[in-house]
Amino acid sequence: MRLGLVSLIVRDYDEAIDFFVRAVGFELVEDSPATTNDGRPKRWVVVRPPNAESGILLARADGAEQRAAVGEQFAGRVGLFLDVDDADTFDATYARMRAAGVEFVSPPRAEPYGRVAVWWDVAGNRWDLRGPS
Length: 133
Hints:
Blueprint: E1 5-10, H1 13-24, E2 27-35, E3 41-48, E4 55-60, H2 64-69, E5 78-83, H3 87-99, E6 109-111, E7 114-120, E8 126-131
Parallel strand pairs: 1-4, 5-8
Antiparallel strand pairs: 2-3, 3-4, 6-7, 7-8
């Protein structure tokens, strides 16, 4: 058993693809036409970190309830975690993301579980960039 995808509600497919691919460094795995359960057109858009098996399904908000959930999927808490393997990769990833316009809540800090820097995605959700101490 494995976790395949996590859905993230976004305002716009192309805006989210640009953010996750250009600014965060993910790969666009799939962008295919699809339909909703009631037959309306949508897209099946999946991004993921390089060499990862799990990914994120970018789901465009459909209706008022979903539009209200954009950026609030985790009620203001960090809900997603992007892990790197070592301190050098952490520093390089942090610097690259900042240079690409990713907004961080604060500079990296040390926690008992490793180094962490909290950032916002294009939809307004909080993530942790995490690495070893």
